[in-house]
Amino acid sequence: MPSADRNPPSQEVARRQFSLRGLFVLVLLCSLACAVVFRVLLPAVGAAQQAARRSACVNNLKQIGLALHNYHDVYGRFPAPSVSAADGKPMHSWRVAIVPFLISHPFYMRYDFNRPWDSPANLRLAKSFCPSFYVCPSANQPSGSGLTNYVMVVGPKAASRAGSWTGLDQITDGPANTVIIAEIADSDIFWSEPRDLNMDEMSFQINDPSKPGISSHHLHGAMVLFADGTVKFLDESTKPDDLRAMLTASAGDKAATEKER
What we know:
Blueprint: H1 11-75, E1 82-84, E2 90-93, H2 94-97, H3 107-110, H4 120-129, E3 150-154, E4 179-183, E5 197-198, E6 221-226, E7 231-235, H5 240-247
Parallel strand pairs: 3-5
Antiparallel strand pairs: 1-2, 3-4, 4-6, 6-7
């Protein structure tokens, strides 16, 4: 008689093989279903993340706006974009000047205003501090780089003028119509460095890839802070003439966006 090990597979073995095939099919179907759900939900997750980063950027600018107004309450003027030495070399940024109005931190007491921002001690101190409220959450800067995304727009007709302090009474176009701080993407400006966005050299197109200007990694626009503390998202469709009007403080013009307020 044939030996038992040459008999056809038993029904128990066949059922076991069928169960394994069924389990494999079930796992495959679950994987396909998860992939479909992931593809459907991914845009919504991305949109939610973008909205959260945009909201955090608004909050950063609101904090900066409040600090600027608290500074104004104390000194009667907004800080100058930078303070220069006797030889005309810029020494310190306005971002350093408003730190005590933003956060309670020993940085400001330890910072040496008698030496330039990039002196070894000041630079080492600024690198160890790296305040997060000067960085847009959507920015591509490496974490801890100390690069900022928020700058003053500086020019003879702007709210911020090189080497001078501007008061609200000097913004005759109206603080609610005049941008004082703007967002820039992919900045190479260290946060304590006295360097900003020059109105005479900038593009008046939002997110212009060919020239420095107001820009961000938010979709279709960038954030700005008006001198009255209002934060607004400027769409890429903003007309250059309207943007120019928003950036001038005493030119006798008013931006078309005033009607939106």
